[in-house]
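Before drawing any conclusions, I looked closely at one protein's amino acid sequence and its backbone structure tokens, quoted below without any editing.
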Amino acid sequence: MSSPPRGLIWFCGKTQVKKTTHAVALAHEVKDATGDPILVIDSQGAWNFREWPRAQDRRGLYEAVYGRRQDCAMTPADENDVEAVYRTVRQLGRCTVLLDEASFWISKRKLPTDISRALRAWAHCGVLFLFTTQRIGDIHPTALAIDCEIRVYQTLTGPDSDRLWDDYRIKLEEVQRLPVGSYITIRNGEVQRGGDGCPRVTVEAA
């Protein structure tokens, strides 16, 4: 990795297409480059994080990440938990934050204030924010306006087809034909198909 990514990266697609696997792999690549620990908000107890060191509450999470500088995952009790974590990360920085199944807390119409403030301050606090969600249509417009990369895996119909075509001129059929583990990259609003320096597989337009 020439220089570790910072900002926001969204991994969007239906279940079992490797989006969380890739998000975790990228987080570890950044950790190898920077030494920064990985803080995971495991929204619903995903199998990907069963073997991770876990905290039962925010205090335990902060002690692991900021005290011992170790990777740690936590399943939040509610939205207040999630917002408090982002508020602390904005203040202390120096980690990679992975929010798995972001649609539990973020939608096209809702972006809690403390999450929004943390995302806007990514450059100042030196944090990489990673998100997984099943639909690109879930991403709030404010998040799209920040230094943002979207990786679109096999996806579903509904709001995804509208955003893919209206905003990026990507046909739903193209992403539905993607092999498992492959994706199309949208970087700062521009569609990238192959040859873009992405560490994972992208696909050529059909």
The chain has one domain: 7-192. Helices lie at 19-34, 58-67, 79-92, 113-120, 122-125, 141-145, 159-168, 172-176.
